[in-house]
Protein: Magnesium transporter MgtE
Organism: Brachybacterium tyrofermentans
Amino acid sequence: MTETQATVDSVLAMLRAQPHDEEQLEQLALEAHLLPVGELVYLLESRPETEAAVLFRVLDKDRALGVFESLPSHHQAELISALRTPQVAEIIGDLDPDDRAALLDELPASVAERLMHGLDADERAMTTTVLGYPRHAIGRYMSPEVLTLLPTLTVREAMAHVRAHAEEPETVYLLPVVDGSRTLLGVVGLRRLLVADEEALVGDIAHEAVRARATDDREDAARRFFGAKLLAMPIVDSEDRLVGIVTVDDAIDILEQENTEDSARTSGSEPLRRAYLSTPIIGIVRSRIVWLLVLAISAILTVQVLEVFEDRLDQVVILALFIPLLTGTGGNTGNQAATTVTRALAVGEVRVRDLPRVVWQELRVGATLGAVLGALGFLVSGLVYGWAIGTVMGLTLLSICTMAAIVGGLMPLVAKRVGADPAVFSNPFISTFCDATGLIIYFTIATAVLGL
């Protein structure tokens, strides 16, 4: 057992011991001080609210701030609800405006209002600015604290300005260049300032800025951020006036949230709002049950199709043996296509207007896959069950793979077009659709080939 693990076990034992006297709390504080921030974050996320509150309360202010900033906003809200101490008010005042806004979203209105009143006027104004944007807009994730430069400054004057104000903004690695009305003219990197001629004007060394509007979708802006390989990106309003800046840690958080959400919905569930081990059983059940009910109802289509073709199954019982193979192949083919297109949409490789090209691409891919699998199915089933059955299997696999690939590629684009989450239209619904449609194709081909 490592020293860190032994300390974690000791902390857990002390947290479980109820109630806590002063001596126990002092010992807990000493043990907690030995743990890295990552372990403390894990403990706070995975323990019940009362134990997490006790652990957080014994941390010194600097360590508490570092841990608090690393927690998801819903865990921060739970801690605040459990603590209600002056230490919390101080920590909230030290948060960046965007992190503070995310936290206030999770709190009851009365608690959020009380915390807002505890902020100074400047911090309250910046937080209100961030809260004024829609929840999924990139403006919700920006910091309004930005160090800007005027284009008429010399490099020497600009460096003096940066040194004088370096502690105030969230980042100084990318410096927006603005005019008197805060219209964004360009950006200049700190490295560029350091190596430039001291008498050169900032406006002469600045370059065009990759920017986003504050109302842009957060995922689209974050993808653009990483596509341009940025450390920070200026955020502007509808008139190109600078209103804030998004840093790389904000962009990472956005994509992590989006990927978590897409992953959960692709597998037919809703994302958990807190750590898995600390989520109540009813919370996990609630995240899964709705999708299971929807899919169960959708699967009735498959049962109805089988009922329609029941007489064909009675005539050639062997057809029933291949149903799991065909439905599984169709579902898997559709899911592969949907996953590929959903990712391509997310990273900007495909747009809704590319729908005809995507359909043509997946038609060819599906037909090729179907030809390979169909040839194999024709050979194997033909040798074992006769060439008539082999022909049915070969033609069905060719048709199902082609159909499933087209549908799988089409669904995410349709979802994007109507404003829905492409992940929702992916694996669960595609599997159900391909099952029912695939069976119709299967029995139609069997009827024609076998003369049923």
